[in-house]
Amino acid sequence: MWTLTEDEKLGVAIFNFRSCVPHTLTLELGESVRILEKCQGWFRGYSCRRSNVKGIFPCSYIHVKKCAVTNKGSREAAVAVEDAVVTEVTSTLREWASLWKQLYVRHKVDLFFRVAHVMSELMELRRQLTTTTTQLTEQHERDIKRHMTARLDWGNEHLGLDLVPRKEFEMVDEDRVSVSDLYKMHLSSRNNVQHNSQHNSNPQQRPVGGLQWRAPVAHHLLLNLKSFTSNNIGEDSDIFFWLYDLREGKSISEKFLVRLNKNGGPKKSEKADKLRTLFTDLSNKDMKRDLYIVSQVIRTGRMSLNDHKKGPPHVRYRRPYGCAVLAMSDVLQTISELKDEKDFVLKVYMCNNESEWYQIHENIIRKSSTKYSAPGNNYGLIISLRLLRGDVEELQRENKWMSSGSVTLTRKLGFPDVIMPGDMRNDLYLTLERGDFERGGKSVQKNIEVGVSLLCADGEVVQDCISAGCGEPNVTEHRSLVLYHNNSPRWSEAIKLPVPVDRFRGCHLRFEFRHCSTKDKGDKKLFGFSFTPLMRDDGTTLSDQSHELFVYKCDENSTLCNPGLYLSLPCCKDHLSPGLPSMAFQRSTRETFWISTQLSSTKLTQNVDLLALLKWKAHPDRVGDILGRLRHVSGEEIVKFLQDILDTLFSILDDNTDKYGPLVFQSLVFVINLLRDSKYFHFRAVMDTYIHKHFAGALAYKELIRCLRWSMERSAESARQDHIQDVMRALEYLFKFIVQSRSLYSRATCGMEEEQFRNSVQELFRSIRFVLSLDRPTCETLIFTQPTQGPCQSGPPAQAHLPAPGPVAYSAQVLSPGSLWTPPLSVAVLSSLPAIFDELLQMFSVQEVAEFVRGTLASLPSMLHIPGHSVDAVKLQCIARTVDSRLFSFPESRRILLPVLLHHIHLHLRHQKELLMCSGILTSLFSIIKTSSLDASVHEEVEMMVESLLDVLLQTLLSIMSNSQSQEAVRGHRCPQCTAETSGEFVSCLLSLLRHMTDIHFQHLMENFQSKDVLKDFMMKIWCVFRNLMKLSIFPRDWNVMRLLTSHIILSAARRLAPFQLKNFVGTDFDFKVWSSYFSLAVLYINQPSLQLENMSASKRKKIFDKYGDMRVTMTYELFSMWQNLGENKKHFIPGMIGPFLGVTLVPQAEVRNIMIPIFHDMMDWEQRKNGNFKQVEAELIDKLDSLVSEGKGDDNYRELFSLLTQLFGPYPSLLEKIEQETWRETGISFVTSVTRLMERLLDYRDCMRGDETENKKMGCTVNLLNFYKSELNKEEMYIRYIHKLCDMHLQADNYTEAAFTLLLYWELLQWDERPTKELLHYPAQSEWQRKEALGRKLVHYFGKGKCWEFGVPLCRELAFQYESLYDYQSLSWVKKLEAAYFDYIMEQQRLEPKFFRVGFYGRKFPFFLRNKEFVCRGHDYERLEAFQQRMLGEFPQAIAMQHPNQPDEAILQSDAQYLQIYAVTPVPEAVGVLQMDRVPDRIKSFYRVNNVRHFRHDRPFHKGPKDRENEFKSLWIERTTLILAHPLPGISRWFEVEKRELVEVSPLENAVSVVENKNQELRTLISRYQLKQPHSNNVNLLSMTLNGVVDAAVNGGIARYQEAFFDKDYISGHPQDGDKITQLKHLMQEQVHVLGAGLAVHDKLVHPEMRPLHKKLVDQFQVMKSSLCHAPCASDQADSARGITGPDGFDVHRHSEAGNVGNVLILADGEDFYGIQANHSSSSLSSTRSAPSHFISLALSTHKEKSRNRETLMLLPLQRERPNSVMYQNFGEDGQRLFLHPLISPACKPCSDPNLSFSDKVVAVPSSWSLDSATREAVPVLSAHVGGGGGVAPPVPPRNAPAHGRHPSMHFAAFHHQLGDLPPALPIRSLKSRLQCSLALPTSPASIPDGTNSTLSDSTSSNSSSSGVFTLSQSNSSDIHESAASQAEQGDPWGAPLSPPRLMVSNVSDLLCMSPSAPQSQEGPPPRCQHLHYIPTHSPLDWAPEPPPAARPCNPYSREGGVPKDSGPAPGLVLGNKSQPSFSGPQQARVGWACGLTQE
Asked: Which of 49, 199, 423, 956 has the greatest count of CB atoms below 10 A from its CB?
């Protein structure tokens, strides 16, 4: 039968429990369980971790814990009855466990192990605290708790958890303490954590009496002697250490002694590793001294260390050896920052003259090197030092090694700064200074040793009372050093005599002098002695000074056995008496001995005046004089005899009150004030003990009151100010004596004279009020003249020439005659007043004492300022101590005192004076109110505080926050901690007051406002303060307890104030400011981070919800209620509140969203009514959404937020229903759709912007959002903002090219105009021209850093055009040089061709902008497919890599997973013309192959039909996929989405044609690189391997396999439609034979002799291959083939798109026939491919001389050389089609940078037609857009003409002062821009002049030619280039070719007669002769219609549409030629010119 448990409610599993029994609960060791029922050894309950799962478990597995049950029944709660710290540790460790594991996951390994160590320590400390086997002392238990809480706070801080406020190590309940106290606890806990300090239960206790005293921190220096390295002592030694003050020239500490044996180890083996001492009680003053550690080494052995003959071996002397010093000035600073010991080495020096031994340490410090020397290099002391702070006993408890006896305490000489009452000392420090002795008839001086002993009067030697140094036991006799042969020795040797007090009187010191002879074998010879008693006859001890003692002769030791024989003799000059001389001893008048003594005793005195006071009855007639001399006694002497002195004073007072009363009163005041000194502060406890236990003056109170009143009544007399000040300071203890005396008298007389006593006290308080009134500034003490401006105000006296603070400036002020400002008596009275309250409560009732205090405080002036004295501060201190006193804890006294206290605080807050002190008083006040409210009602007190403080508190807080913000603006950055420190206490005070206010208080508050203006002012203040509390970081993030309580109080206040706002500020009284403040507060409140429960752990969320609920929901209901009550006034908040309310809807709380939806609909409806559209709503909404994303609003569950907002704007029923019911339904749905789509992208953007995401994802998401803002929302400002965000991402990733393209988007938005632009982002306010120019320079710079100089050149030209139009030649020069440098870089610097990869993102788990899309990505340098795949899988660790290139099915697309499909693709270049030109260097072609590419190809081989096992080429088809991107690469991103896919299938035959064609082109390219090289000069391995791979194809069988497959009769007959293709394949194979022959010829010339066998093998294999091929086809077949190849439809492979033309090649067959073959490339997937265009152009060579060219060269020559329309750049026409620029240039105008031109070709014979001032030049085209435009391509860079007169200066960018790696220089401000008119001058092509009239270039011109470009050939040196150029100059240039079909135009009618209609199409002969023929581009003629100029400009400006000005040349369509043509002869007639097109931008 299951029964409910009574006491067994909580338990802990002590074993793991798992069972297959039904309904059992699985438990783990240490798991807490809640027990509900019990039955036969089984419990039923649930785990505290899983409260929703209940089950049974055995009782034996559970340890039941004691607990307390509350709310018995269904909602009962059980709390374990255990120590609060233990409970906190348990719960905290569980919370840490999960966070600790995450540290390892996040690779925070160091913190992981540190937290693990702390957790282990906490578990061990918890075990010690909970164990029952050992009984802990209270102190030990407190230490354990202190350590536990310190570790808890440390862990919470490092793990990002909340700070825990504690009191006495335990967590506080915020409901039991005031908000102010809670703030103080948080502040204390934070300071403890930050400073790593230990918790102290009373960190800042106020001492009794209210003195702001704090015990000085004692410093202690730990010294550890580690070793003493000695190489020549060989004897025992004593090492002394002490602290020495060089400035004062004295020691400040005792000596520490270490005794070592001759081997350098300690004499006592047990002291090994324990040679440590602690120099204690060093004050702050001592730390500032010029301190040194002095160490002296004294050896014990022979007289001379090096002479073993001197002295018998059994006689041992203490001889000086060496000394070492260490300066502490730098050492203290070093060791004070360390927690461990630091080692130091002290070098030991020897004294050169023993007579200087006494000051050897000073000589070493002063570096008097002539007086000491070093015994050796490796000789010294190694010590370690450490500085400790605090109480010695506390340090010993904390450090076990200190309490084990291994550390010796070395005390300070004399008393420390703080003398403790229990510190009993009686130490006499004796220093043997020097002596003067006679030679005694000897030839040499004596070796004198002094023996010191302490004897009693009867001759008994006091045993073990002499200490040579700390660390060694005391001895009975001390023997001094022996200085060799010195009759005037100076020892300066100090010893300590700890003489017992009871033996001090009657003892004397005896000094025996012995001569230590090195020749005698007996004992040391005694020759004299001195003595001195310790106490004199008058009872005083030996004075602290130097004493000169008489020396008495003595020869025998036996004569000293009777001290009575010499004690009667005088010991010094002060003791000389006329008595008879002693017959036993004779004084040596020529010998003297000096000693010095210092007594540190708490029982003995050296002061005669003090002894006279204590024995006053012996001299009753001198009592007055004795009392007067008490002031001259030192404080140390007084505190030692404090009780005796007090007894003496009161006995004198009782003896004769009338006569000695005032004197005793003055002496008592002196003693009391002496205890105010911090050095004697601890003796106040002795005084208190004396008053309560030993004081017996029952009649003393009468005299004390009388003297006290008399002093106060004389306070107006300036002559007695000092005395009265002392009396006021002693007021506390005077009242203690008065009250105790009255109590004794009352007990003795049964309460007699009670009324007289009460009257006398009342009179005394009237006197106190009189004293306080004296400090009021009245006409008697301070006279002010009328102010020069403003009203008269009382204030502090100031100098006559300075104005008083504030607006008032007094012209003069006059003090009363003879009055000087001294510390006012009120300061002393107020400082002592609160201390007497407790004493008065013993004699008077609470009400009576409160009336006394109220009257006293009421007599104070409201605001009192006295120069040099902060009386206001003292007054507030008095009030603070009054509040803290026991008197104020009584409700009766508070009702009396509170009004006057609040009055003073109110005035100070209003004037903003002493704010910190006011906040402290209020903190204490609210703490008392809170404590009292727990037991009784405090309604009346709170009412008084509300009336007096609420408004002024609000005003003070606003002032503090305003000052903080203004200082922040000045500093330029925010300091949250400064704001918190300044306003934290006042905020806590305000919250405390609001917390105590009830509905009645609010009702009374509102009723007291006299007008609505005052009410409005109050409402604005309180809403503003609340808003600032939400916005400013008043409380740190981890103060969660404080933040939650603040939110709760604000919510409660807002709910109580809302009805009054509705009552007073709606309808006709509507006030926008009040309502706006309220709404702003509500929005800030709901969005504050501390209330977002979703971000918290489950346990923390439950705890908060149980205590406060979800305060966001409550505030949202209040917000909704207030909104609904606005009525027609809602329109005032549209669209202003749309953004803030939207922020509320983003809170991930369903109820909050549901409440806000009607508000949102209202706003939409009001906007529709007001404006008829949603423009403002939409704009505000978009801006707010974007800002919310930028601020990172929302929690981690972004998908949930997305669904919430989708519900809000999309399918949420209530909103859609409301929209559908409105007339603006369509507008609303469109609005919802736009915002929803924006939100999708914004959430993706926020998801990617997180720190863990990769840069590629961030960039892709930014591109997606950027395009959305431009294309759909048309938000230009947002568009520009995200352009720069994307640019910054590219710059961080070093993607400079992409950064340039991104910034180009903004550049294109700007115009070359002078319109002013506003400040935007980091751009200042400037003209649009200036901003575009600066952007242009930056773009050029980025393109340069990205090595895409081709894209930077047109920008340079655009800038140059602008500079030229403004005549800014300095900037023009810079940009021209930069352009030239870019051309140099193009030719010189190596650039890698990137790889391209196609990536497919499939699955619903990908972000919106990637989901089910495919992209082409531009890889990094050197990045291959495998590396790219790994990178992508690293960016998407959850993705699954697809292993096939097939398109995914629908299941994969809709799956909740991530699939990646990656394979390489081949770019299909756009600039085909450049790639077809043979003279273009490979570096230039390489750029155009991989840049400005939109088409990419991927080939997948497959077999269609049955596979032929013998020859797989018969069925090998190619599936060719062409991917077309939305934008070309490179662009604003490294990847772009695939816009279109094209799929074609390539037949096996077509594939064979493509493969052979590509191989032929590869061979031609390779052979052309090698044919100009010198024999044996280069490595030809690449050529050898390539030829061998073709000639001897071992893998696939080579072209023989194609013969077998396609030349078979069966195949030919079965595929009649492939006849042309078969013929083409035959020609390609034959071509390959010829190319291989040329290659072998080149190889024969270059091969090294050692590689001749390889060459022979290649030739043999070539012959075999050649013989195996079929015979060449007949001429007709060749012609048909040629027609088929060159015709537009001759070679159509399923019309698939091909990559580009590589070039036409001339193949010379055996019959001297030429075959025009078009090169084509094809390969499988993952390889770079090239393919042929759809048309071919062939042209035979026109001269016979070219046919006779060397055969191996002609095989490689192109049949037709077609120059592209532009060497580098293309442009777009108006229809968006790609157009080429074709400016026609004569040979004289060929670009000098072309490396393929001969030297003679580079010579310029005529002036250049390209000039900056030409009237017909067209503007340079600008780089077109890559994103958002219609297929932008690389811009053209047309070749520039050479300068006139053959001079083309070489411009190297490196020589220019603008470095490419730097940003462009700042540009000058331009105020004028003009446009240059464009002109066109087209020279005549020499190919159009068939008669050969063009003459050759002269030698002189050739000699002057120079090139501006840098030309290179791959793998060739300069000598090869020169030889090739020379041969070309001799034989004629075979590389020139006429342009493909030209269009001829004439400039006049006569030219028409020279034209042949077929000339443009003829390929068989030269064109007809004509003098004025010009080539025109093949595309459609340009529109030369001029554009009308603007009215404001004199010339037609350059526009984006392009055009030629009206006055810029001939009529449209006509091209003017150059009338003067250069003449050519010989081979030059056959040369064709370079042609470049001209187009319109």
From this structure: 956
> CB neighbours (10 Å) of residue 1999?
14
The number of C-alpha atoms within 13 Å of 816 and in the hemisphere containing its C-beta is 9
Residues whose CB falls within 8 Å of the CB of residue 173, separated by 6 or more in sequence, listed in order? none
CB 531 within 8 A of CB 505: no
Nearest CA-CA partner of 2001 in 1737, 1822, 1749: 1822
Q: Which of 1477, 1486, 1484 is nearest to 1387 (CA)?
A: 1484
Q: Report the pLDDT value the prediction gives residue 1021, as an integer from 0 to 100.
A: 93
As a dihedral over the C-alpha atoms of residue 1431, residue 1435, residue 1439, residue 1440, rounded to 10 degrees, the angle is: 0
Give CA separation, 443 vs 175, 446, 524, 590, in Å: 95, 9, 18, 18
The beta-strand segments (E) located in 1273-1373 are: 1316-1317, 1326-1327
Is the Cα torsion angle 1333, 1337, 1338, 1342 positive or negative in sign?
positive
**Residue pointed to by tokens 């710290």:** 85
DSSP H helices, 641-720, are: 642-655, 657-674, 684-689, 700-713
What is the widest separation between alpha-carbon atoms in the chain?
Answer: 166
pTM: 0.59
- Strand 219-229 to 448-455 pairing: unpaired
3-class SS of residue 1089? helix
Select from 789, 788, 807, 785 the least CA-distant residue to 797.
785
- Kind plus residue range of the DSSP H or E element containing 250: strand 250-251
Report residues of the chain scoring pLDDT below 50: 197-213, 777-822, 866-868, 972-979, 1194-1216, 1671-2041
Residue whose token pair is 């609000």: 954
1548-1570 helix and 1599-1606 helix, angle to the nearest 10 degrees: 150
3-state secondary structure of 1397: strand
> Which residue has 């607006």 as its token pair?
807
Taking alpha carbons only, the member of 15, 45, 16, 42 closest to residue 33 is 45
Strands 77-80 and 67-70: antiparallel
pLDDT value of position 1715: 32
Do the Cβ atoms of 823 and 833 come closer than 8 Å? Answer: no
- Chain-centroid distance, C-alpha 813: 56
Name the DSSP class of 1856.
S
> Would you say 447 and 485 are in contact if contact means Cβ atoms under 8 Å apart?
yes
Q: Whole-angstrom Cα distance, residue 448 to residue 1692?
A: 128
Apex 1375 CA angle, 1370 and 1379, nearest 5: 150
Percentage with pLDDT > 90 across the chain = 26
Task: Return the amino acid letter for 1287.
Answer: C
Q: Which amino acid is at 1153?
A: R
Question: What is the number of H-type helices and E-type strands within the chain?
Answer: 61, 47
Query: 1242-1252: per-residue pLDDT in tens?
Result: 766 766 666 55
Q: Residue 1598 is encoded by which pair of tokens?
A: 């080579």
Place of tokens 């260097």: 1481
Rounded Cα–Cα distance for residues 419 and 1362 (Å): 88
Rounded CA separation 155/907 (Å): 45
Task: Write the burial class of residue 295 (CB in 10 Å: 0-12 exposed, 13-18 middle, 19+ buried).
Answer: buried
CA 1141 to chain centre: 34
pLDDT tens figures, 902-959 = 999 999 999 888 888 898 899 999 999 988 887 777 889 999 999 999 999 999 999 8
| Number of residues in the chain | 2041
Q: What's the pLDDT score for residue 478?
A: 94
Contact indicator for 1523, 1538 with CB cutoff of 8 Å: yes
pLDDT tens, residue by residue, 1317-1330: 988 888 999 999 99
Residue 1542 pairs in a beta bridge with: 1522
The four Cα atoms 988, 991, 993, 998 give a dihedral, to 10 degrees, of -160
Report the chain's mean pLDDT, rounded to a whole number.
74
How far is it, in rounded angstroms, from Cα 701 to Cα 698? 7
